[in-house]
Amino acid sequence: MKIVAVLLLLLVQASSGKPSRKYQSYGGRNPYYRPPNYFPPFPTNFPPFPTTTQSTTSQPMTTPNIMMVSEEDDKKASEFGIKIPPHECIISWDQFKENVPGKQYAEIYDIDFDDNRFPGGIKKAQLQFSIVNDSSIRREASLRVEALDMCLYIFGIEERVDPNKAIFEPLSGNALVFPGRRDFVVSSDPSRYIFYFFCYEYDTRKEDRCPSGIVILLLKDDREWPKGGDGIPDRQIRLNDVPWGDIEKTMKKCFLQQFVDDTNPQANYVWKGEDCAVPGSDVYKNGIMQT
User: How many angstroms separate the first and last alpha carbons of the chain?
Assistant: First the structure.
């Protein structure tokens, strides 16, 4: 009888419209109730967003592709030496005369693939060039020989061997004067940097590669080079606004070499260690006389 009474009570509550206790816990609202939809359905088929077409005159959004050095080129460099730069990579004699003489240069990187002439490597070389006449130039350099922990002051007179390009062979000097050497000046912008390539054994090249030599990257040194005293500039070199992207592309295009590499020969940062007296200083001139 009690069970029947309970069932009857529930039927009475349902017929009277009062919510049961389980709905009262939601504040008197039926959790299954949904109000009528007075708004149209939310669209799902949006039109595509407008796109902009990049103008052919605008700058690209990504960096341009740079040619990578192949494994085959690395193997050839290890076996035969550094590639002789193509003719279009070598600056003209007019470009050399306009941009190089009288400027102060610091050697920042080099690719040294000869252990016989300067064993142990060179650090902090500084160079300057001048025009002797229309057929020859003078090169002056001060450099620190790391293995000997000493400064070396050298000069050389070089003659042009190409009617239009900055290609030279040694005539005289106090270092690196021997038959078979040929030098090349390479740059995409000689007003900002140059590569000076000393090919020591040009006559014995194979696969259009130099078997022994050094490639040096020269950047302009904007410090004041003193004449007297110790011949060492007062402040540190500043490498502002260096066109590293152009330099890297030139290195890859003209020498088939790159900065970051784990194969030999490879580029090395050499602007470190103690300074030597700059070319043109009294200390440099006395050092030349003693060699």
Answer: 129
Structure tokens at 82: 């550094």
* Cα separation values, 252 from 141, 213, 257, 273, Å: 26, 18, 5, 28
- Three-state DSSP at 210 gives strand
Query: Among 261, 254, 259, which residue's Cα sits nearest to residue 269?
Result: 259
Question: Backbone dihedral region of 155: left (phi > 0), alpha (psi from -120 to 50 degrees) or beta?
Answer: beta
Q: Are the C-beta atoms of 252 and 245 separated by less than 8 Å?
A: no
How high is the pLDDT of residue 146? 79
- Are residues 158 and 136 in contact, defined by beta-carbon separation less than 8 angstroms? yes
Give the global pTM.
0.74
The CA distances from residue 9 to 4, 21, 145, in Å, are 9, 13, 109
The strand pair at 209-210 and 82-83 is best described as: antiparallel
* Mean pLDDT score, 208-220: 93
Higher pLDDT, 20 or 88: 88
> Is the separation of the CB atoms in 27 and 19 below 8 Å?
no
Residue by residue, DSSP assigns 39-93 as SPPPP--PPPPP--PPPTTSPPSSPPP-PPPPHHHHHHHHHH-EEPPPGGGBPBH
Place of tokens 């949904």: 34
* pLDDT tens digits for range 241-256: 899 999 999 999 999 9
Cα distances (angstroms) measured from residue 214 to each of 7, 31, 50, 89, 209: 105, 84, 55, 17, 12
DSSP 226: -
Please, what are the domains in the chain?
A: 71-289 (2.40.128.20)
